[in-house]
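Recap quiz, item 2
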Amino acid sequence: AQSVAQPEDQVNVAEGNPLTVKCTYSVSGNPYLFWYVQYPNRGLQFLLKYITGDNLVKGSYGFEAEFNKSQTSFHLKKPSALVSDSALYFCAVPNNDYKLSFGAGTTVTVRA
Amino acid sequence: NAGVTQTPKFQVLKTGQSMTLQCAQDMNHEYMSWYRQDPGMGLRLIHYSVGAGITDQGEVPNGYNVSRSTTEDFPLRLLSAAPSQTSVYFCASSSRRGRGYGYTFGSGTRLTVV
């Protein structure tokens, strides 16, 4: 089965500093990988996805993710974090057309 | 706006009570699924459906029932609520077009069982 892991429960950064949220994957074949964000008391929002092609994927709200096949990683990045980026972030991989397997989630806190 | 609609947004139940969480989508997606979100565990699949009249169990199905009589609706039933079912529940839909197409989530139902 396809799976992802998020090694950090929490990430704390100062506003204006770079933000990185880590994700590693275990996938057979060519991976499809997703990032979702959950703001406090809100639903899951799609940020970006990797299917094939460029290893650097650009998404919503200024986020991007780098696919690294040799390190089996798909880290989420933002060059300059905002306080409003404070949220819960999930990496996910589809096991098939109807099931996503999620990482445990990483809570990001951006301090002013 | 097209999407997945969940009701209610919040619910408090007493142990032993039953209730139905509603989920509807208007994107004509073939696939629908229910997840529960618990701290430190990500989202776990409860039940899913690949089309009207077809449902199957996910990772954590005990205590929940589902049915899919139409393409649009996929209700989740709690038969006899237990405190262990306190969680945030998300409904999602996806297209048969393929796993790279994407998955759309509802805004969630926060359930507390006391």
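Chain A has no helices and twelve strands.
The mean pLDDT of chain A is 92.
End of item.
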